[in-house]
């Protein structure tokens, strides 16, 4: 019985932690400046430029910068 409880707590802990790594889309990052800047800062601090969130945040930043410079919304 004791082993069942410890396995249950372990499983619940893993489920709770897996929900923390939500993958955001570039559109999510384009809508939320605070979230984009937070993720970009984390990517720089952790030197993790290849994670999905880092790549999507960078793509969103590139699109926003393009729109600001050209006034166009479509990168070709």
From TrEMBL:
Keyword terms, alphabetized: Lipoprotein
PROSITE patterns noted in UniProt: PROKAR_LIPOPROTEIN (PS51257)
NCBIfam families: Eex_IncN
Name of the molecule in the record: EexN family lipoprotein
């Amino acid at each position: 019985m004791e082993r069942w409880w410890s396995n249950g707590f372990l499983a619940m802990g893993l489920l709770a932690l897996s929900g923390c790594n939500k993958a955001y889309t570039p559109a999510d990052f384009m809508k939320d400046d605070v979230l984009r800047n937070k993720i970009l800062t984390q990517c720089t601090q952790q030197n993790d430029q290849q994670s999905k969130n880092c790549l999507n945040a960078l793509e969103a930043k590139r699109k926003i910068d393009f729109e600001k410079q050209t006034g166009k919304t479509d990168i070709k």
